[in-house]
Amino acid sequence: MRKFSLAILFATVLATTPSYAARCGGDFNAFVQSMAAEAAAAGISQAVISQAFAGVTQDPAVLNFDRRQRGTFRKTFEQYVSTRVGPGRINIGRQMLLRHASLLSRIEQKFGVPPQIIVAIWGLESDFGKGDIGKMPVIRTLMTMAHDCRRTELFQGELLAALKIVERGDLPLRDLIGAFAGEIGQTQFLPSSYIKYGVDFDGNGHVDLRHSIPDVLASTANLLHVSGFRNGAPYDEGSQNFEAMREWNRATIYRKTIGYFADQLVGR
Q1: Cβ atoms of 202 and 215 closer than 8 Å
Q2: Which end is more exposed in the chain, N or C (fewer Cβ atoms within 10 Å of the end residue's Cβ)?
Q3: Within the chain, where are the H helices?
Q4: Residue 97: how many CB atoms within 10 A of its CB?
Q5: What is the pLDDT of residues 15-39, one digit of tens each?
Q6: For 131-148, what is each residue's pLDDT tens digit?
Q7: Beta carbons of 158 and 192 less than 8 angstroms apart
Q8: SS3 category, 130
Q9: Active site amino acids
Q10: What are phi and psi of 58, to 5 degrees?
Q11: Phi-psi region of 200 (alpha: psi -120 to 50; beta: other; left: phi over 0)
């Protein structure tokens, strides 16, 4: 998702983001202190706050990347899909379907999402966990974006959600690494989605979307399930399932690419 327009990614989040008190802009260190107070009020321990915010600085690269984003996706579907779904990725995807067949079957039974959809998303987002899942400290990224006044409430909420991931013990701070908008893990969840949809499917007591394939795939399926995806129904453009995938990505071309990739994986 991070390779798509961030304006599209965040378009619907703004309407449901709660209001936070920290004032954006101005002195960065003062803003960090305000966010520390917000985090404490949200129930984050002082130990996590101190560790997470120690020495945090702004990241100009994050702001530069964000300002380069466009609200309109300019490629046609044919142009886009040709760069994302080639024979190599299809072949690896089919191998993943076989390798994780038992796991994907259990996920399908519980969440009602077919394996090819889950594997297609996994492949598009991170080359099945082997590609780039981000190298940027999530706390620094989100603090930078929250301090910027264009979408401060959204990113203040994401920052608090990221702290909750650490507070719950799902990921240590050293593993809270992500992309240019703070997306985390093999299918690129924003921290708020991590908290809302994350599933501990390997049964170890933690939701680990960076390292645990069962957690990654089940959480991806859970997001779609909660959004209204129904197994056995079509997922092409105009269908209920196609609309359910809006929670994953609002861009029509991206959702069409998921469906196309999924069909290729099962030989349709």
Answers
A1: yes
A2: C
A3: 6-9, 28-41, 46-53, 60-68, 77-84, 87-99, 101-111, 115-126, 138-147, 152-167, 191-197, 213-226, 240-244, 252-265
A4: 16
A5: 444 555 689 999 999 999 999 999 9
A6: 889 899 999 999 999 999
A7: yes
A8: coil
A9: 125
A10: -70, 150
A11: beta
